[in-house]
Amino acid sequence: MSTTRAAAFFDLDRTLISGASPATFAVAAWRGGMLDGGLLARDALGAVMFRLFGASDETSNASRDRILEIVRGTRRDELVALNEVVIPTLLDKIRPESHGLIEMHHEAGRDTYIVSASPQELVGALASALGMTGGIGTRAAVDDAGHYTGLLDGPFVYGEGKVEAIADLASDRGYDLRLSYGYSDSASDLPMLDLVGHPVAVNPDSALESVAQQRGWPIVIFSRRTKRVIKTTTAISGAIGLASTTYAVGRRHGRTLEAAELSRARPGWKPWS
Hints:
This protein is α/β, with parallel strands linked by helices.
């Protein structure tokens, strides 16, 4: 029996969920007295801009620094307590197709992970609530008394930081990244998508859509209620319908991803016998 292991890595905001998780977290922090109204308004505006135009390296780094400063001196258990409100709200934002994909990968024997710049306290709890293998988020350093120091404890899990975190995990767990899958909406995740053998662009921004088309990666559009695979690159001639179509993916590794697996992510889809 083969001992080869593979995993599927999912970006969070605008991929697994509709919208941006930091906005949900910010509202909960404000209601809990941990964030003032001015900061909340600014973060809410940032979430709207993110939804419309996507995040840039500069805005993501600025958000990271602002959050680290805001939580500095706060007890970690106070932030963890916010998950009682935040996690149910985020679960309501999970796209139906995301549930299907997670289940499909589990049935295929692959582990599943959320990989996000959001705090590890949030990402890990959400992954657990979804029945996933784990969550890889940004870790903030905590002192001996359990207070945040305002510094990072590991990589900022964004861009190349996702590559570092995934590579470390793969080395520890023995995953073959050439057999693994990556899902994201943003060109900022190109390093992560290049790392795996099966990259998939989900609701891509224009930059990622362009790269996916050039490299022959699947491009899928997830909506709140239904899933439509609306764009593909190279399709094998003679296939009948989405259930039997295979897409050319991964110029880097020359491997293929069956569109049937994506189709099985639809709610109510029955596994093949």
